[in-house]
Every structure is written in structure tokens, then in C-alpha cells.
UniProtKB/TrEMBL annotation:
UniProt protein name: Tat (Twin-arginine translocation) pathway signal sequence
PROSITE patterns: TAT
Taxon lineage: Bacteria, Pseudomonadati, Pseudomonadota, Gammaproteobacteria, Pseudomonadales
Length: 186
């Protein structure tokens, strides 16, 4: 029975990839929606190390200092799903991550942000970069947690439109003079 002890490393190895994180900015809207301050995202094709590197890559391409890693995990999950159905995508991701490490002279995550950015500029014309960037722009900015971060209320049609829900709530702008708008009834 002593062989049944399970440490974190063996659990992660046995469960495939698992992207783990903690919500750091506990006062933001994302933390208010989260059931706990920790999050985990299971992956089917990529390992945890690859997921971490892709998450950091997406963060460097689309930097938002106050956006939680949990939001950046959505593009990583989408890439993992693509890789699980398309071996070409899986190979491209593995080769691209290896290229990041090669250009960094080791672990790409461990070099400073300026060097990471320079490496990304250097590989911006590769199919790997295009795959990550194209996937990330769609999945990063089209999820409810990103909407919360930016204060976007989402699509208006399912909620009855904007006429009675925010159409005239520009309280931060001064009222324009009457002469600025033509009379619609004349």
C-alpha cells in the first residue's frame, strides 16, 4: 500500500497536462465570479510545461497587466483542443515551443520580458506564431471573463437591445447644446 502515495508531480504526469494558477487580483470582477482563488484547466494533448509557455506567449502578444492568467488560459485550452484533433497543429505547437526555448538558450519563461518580446518579434512571420496569435485574438477577447475585465456587458440583442439598457447612460460626457442636434420633427 505504500506505493499508492501520490505527490503533485506524479498526479500531473498521470493526468496529462493541467494548467494551474491562482487569482492574484482578488478585488477584480473575475475574482468575484470565481468559486475559489485557484483555477485549473485540464488539457488533453499538451503537457503542463507547454501550456505554461503558451500562456506566457499569449500574455506577451496581448499584454494587459491587470488581466488574470485564468483569462489567458482560454486560448491555451483552445489550442490544446485543436492539437487533439489535428496532428499538424500539435506538431507545430511542439516545434514552436522548442524554438522559443532554443532562441532563449534554455527555458523561454525564465528570461526577462524584453528578451521574450524580442524573440517573439523574431519569429512573428512563422506559422507557429500566426497559429497562436490568430487563435488567441479570437478566444481571448470573446469570453465572459474578458468581458468582465474590460467592463463590456456582452451582446445586447439577447438582453433586449440597448434602447432601454444603456443607450442614454453617458453620464461622463457633458450634455451637448441643443443646436448640436437637428430637430427630427422638422
Amino acid at each position: 500500500m505504500s506505493n499508492l502515495t501520490l505527490d503533485r508531480r506524479r498526479f500531473l504526469q498521470g493526468s496529462g497536462g493541467l494548467l494551474l494558477g491562482t487569482l492574484l487580483f482578488t478585488s477584480g470582477p473575475i475574482a468575484l465570479m470565481a468559486p475559489s482563488l485557484s483555477w485549473a484547466l485540464p488539457m488533453t494533448t499538451l503537457d503542463s510545461d507547454s501550456g505554461d509557455k503558451l500562456l506566457l506567449m499569449v500574455r506577451r502578444i496581448y499584454p494587459h497587466d491587470t488581466m488574470e492568467d485564468a483569462v489567458y488560459a482560454f486560448p491555451v485550452k483552445a489550442l490544446d483542443q485543436k492539437a487533439s484533433t489535428d496532428p499538424g497543429v500539435a506538431d507545430s505547437l511542439r516545434q514552436g515551443i522548442a524554438l522559443l526555448d532554443q532562441k532563449a538558450g534554455g527555458d523561454w519563461r525564465k528570461i526577462d520580458a524584453d528578451k521574450q518580446f524580442a524573440i517573439l518579434q523574431d519569429i512573428q512571420d512563422t506559422p507557429f506564431f500566426a497559429l497562436v496569435r490568430g487563435n488567441a485574438v479570437n478566444t481571448l477577447y470573446s469570453n465572459e471573463l474578458a468581458y468582465l475585465h474590460f467592463g463590456y456587458e456582452g451582446a445586447s440583442f439577447p438582453k433586449g437591445g440597448y434602447l432601454l439598457r444603456g443607450f442614454n447612460d453617458l453620464s461622463w460626457l457633458p450634455n451637448p447644446p441643443a443646436s448640436a442636434s437637428p430637430n427630427p420633427f422638422s
